[in-house]
Specification:
Among the domains are: 3-80, no CATH class; 421-528, Trefoil (Acidic Fibroblast Growth Factor, subunit A), CATH 2.80.10.50. Helices cover 26% and strands 20% of the residues. It has helices at residues 5-8, 16-31, 60-73, 77-80, 119-132, 155-162, 178-188, 208-217, 288-293, 307-317, 346-361, 366-373, 384-392, 398-404, and strands at residues 108-114, 138-145, 167-171, 193-197, 201-203, 221-230, 246-250, 256-260, 274-275, 284-287, 321-333, 421-422, 427-430, 439-442, 452-453, 459-460, 465-467, 475-477, 488-490, 496-498, 503-507, 514-518, 527-528. The radius of gyration is 25 Å and the shape is globular. It starts with a helix and ends in a 6-residue tail after the last strand. Bound molecules: uridine-5'-diphosphate and manganese (II) ion (MN). Manganese (II) ion is lined by residues 198, 200, 282, 332. Residues 113-115, 117, 146, 177-178, 181, 198-199, 282, 303-304, 335, 338, 340 line the site of uridine-5'-diphosphate (UDP).
Length: 534
């Protein structure tokens, strides 16, 4: 465990250099100097840089520590434990973000839920908030322990944070899942606004003021920082560019996706808030009264998932707005997979959550969700209270939301959706992930095989659009809805014609792959597409 008790003492009266020096001293004593970058003498991870370790030089103990860290967390705890808790980070903000804010920004309660988080990662999260936020704006940091069993999160955590002054730990009495854990944090929060964070983030300079400023301007504004990625293997703090900013969206299976605004920036204003149809869920600031007014979260959502869409739909449909603020930058560790289990039933729990969201908020559009996700109705409990809430608040319809907030989300409502099957070989095309070639597999209508032809002539699925730019095979890419490499025609003879290249989609002889070739009159270039009503 990363102790670092000394760094916590008298923190308020110490300069950042002094705090960092003590961090390094701790690392020196506990981990020996071998993790310093010898030529430069710099500490590991400085300025958000990546940390590479030479595993060939590992002792047996180090090897064990390394393996255990990965399997417990699905990120490289071994590396995290060797990076100072107060490491500095690059300032990636646009220069116009560095303005001064008024005196009257509202205060916030930072709420961080965790379950079995690695100590060094959790403490780096907390210290980054304390180090990089104006002290008078952070009323408190509430850590909500969702029934962790790792011992470092019990008394040692409480002893550590007791010295930090405004940080306290509250605990659930059983495993509640992140939704009810956040609600517990909310019930204890004293400030005017709430800032939720995951337990594995690092905030950067100036992250908080824009969030509070925007919520202060209008209590119905809900805002998220721009989320960059902290690499789960080497802890590199990801950079981003203004040309590549995504906002939150959703796929019709109700999983969160990052989506691209066609024209995210006004060229003259690179720091404007970006309207975001949804939020990823973990990192946002909301006025406490607005959160209360719109009925917080549905408390019957268990474990993980769906709550981000529930809140996003509700914010927009019931009188608020949701934005990404490019001046506020926070890094988040996207883990390899989730290390957290929910009594081994995560799929069913997620089905229940998503169905509750669809039933309450999506009106008739819920049919598209059922059709595309293939989720079968499970016992999703009683939603009458949530529907009553929606009526009481006189919220807009889901159709209004789609039209006004998410016009670039294609609606496959009246479009037939289904498999694209070859006439010669009984196989269907399959698009597993973006960036990968279209494959062929036996037809079973799994969601990677479900496509529709959109109004702008793309072959679209929940993953993206079929794109061809001259290689051997077509690939799945993000839909741009600008025709070009994504424009296809289903011709009368059953061929799938790619307009720009003037080639046709062809199944290989054995049905092993899908290729683009000059058009010719053979059955392997003929396809059966989803029909209306199918
Ligand atoms: N979390 C929790 N209880 C749970 C699941 C998650 O308190 O049952 C916490 C978790 O520790 C994290 C936050 O909720 O701080 C968001 O979860 P996670 O990071 O697993 O979601 P992801 O970022 O992977 O979508
Ligand atoms: Mn997370």
């Amino acid at each position: 465990m990363l102790g670092g008790d000394k760094t916590a003492e008298n923190q308020a009266s110490q300069s950042p250099e002094e705090i960092l020096r003590q961090d390094l001293l701790y690392l020196h004593v506990n981990h020996s100097l071998q993790f310093f970058d010898k030529p430069s003498g710099e500490y590991m991870g400085r300025n958000g840089r990546r940390v590479n370790v030479d595993k060939t030089k590992f002792s047996k103990e180090e090897q064990n520590e390394f393996t255990r860290g990965w399997s417990l967390n699905k990120f490289n705890q071994y590396v995290s434990d060797r990076i100072p808790m107060h490491r500095n980070l690059p300032d990636m903000r646009h220069r116009s973000c560095k303005k001064s804010f008024g005196e009257d920004l509202p205060q916030t309660s930072v709420i961080i839920c965790f379950v079995n988080e690695a100590m060094s990662v959790l403490l780096r999260t907390i210290h980054s908030v304390l180090d990089r936020s104006p002290s008078h704006l952070v009323r408190e940091i509430i850590l909500v322990d969702d029934f962790s069993d790792l011992p470092h999160l019990k008394q040692p955590l409480e002893d550590y944070v007791a010295r930090l002054g405004k940080v306290r730990v509250i605990r659930t009495e059983k495993r509640e899942g992140l939704i009810r854990a956040r609600l517990l944090g909310y019930s204890h929060a004293k400030a005017e606004t709430l800032t939720f964070l995951d337990s594995h983030v690092e905030v950067t300079d100036g992250w908080l003021e824009p969030l509070l400023d925007r919520v202060g301007q209008n209590w119905t504004n809900v805002v998220t920082p721009l989320i960059t990625s902290i690499n789960n293997a080497d802890f590199h703090f990801g950079r981003w560019s203004h040309n590549n900013i995504y906002v939150g969206g959703f796929a019709w299976n109700l999983l969160f996706i990052w989506d691209l605004f066609e024209n995210p920036f006004d060229a003259n204003n690179q720091i404007q808030p970006l309207r975001s149809p949804t939020m990823a869920g973990g990192l946002f600031t909301i006025h406490k009264d607005f959160f209360t007014r719109i009925g917080t979260y549905d408390p019957s959502l268990d474990f993980w998932g769906g709550e981000n869409l529930e809140l996003s739909f509700k914010i927009w449909m019931c009188g608020g707005s949701l934005e990404v603020l490019p001046c506020s930058i926070v890094g988040h560790i996207f883990r390899q997979s989730s290390p957290i289990t929910w009594e081994g039933k995560s799929f069913r729990v997620l089905s229940k959550n998503l169905i509750r969201v669809a039933e309450v908020w999506m009106d008739d559009y819920k049919d598209i969700f059922y059709r595309i996700s293939g989720r079968k109705p499970v016992d999703y409990g009683d939603v009458s209270e949530r529907k009553a809430l929606r009526d009481r608040l006189k919220c807009h319809s889901f159709e209004w939301y789609l039209r006004n907030v998410y016009p670039f989300r294609y609606i496959p409502a009246s479009t037939p959706i289904g498999v694209i099957q070859n006439k010669a070989v009984p196989k269907c095309i399959l698009g597993l992930t973006k960036g990968k070639a279209i494959a062929a597999s036996s037809c079973d209508s799994n969601r990677f095989q479900l496509f529709w032809l959109s109004q702008d002539s793309s072959i679209q699925s929940d993953i993206g659009c079929v794109d061809y730019s001259g290689q051997k095979q077509p690939v799945m890419l993000t839909c741009h809805h600008k025709r070009g490499n994504q424009e296809w025609q289903l011709r009368k003879d059953g061929s799938l014609y790619h307009v720009v290249s003037a080639k046709c989609m062809e199944m290989s002889v054995g049905g092993g792959s899908v290729e683009m070739l000059p058009c010719r009159d053979i059955e392997r270039q003929k396809w059966i597409l989803p029909k209306r009503g199918s």
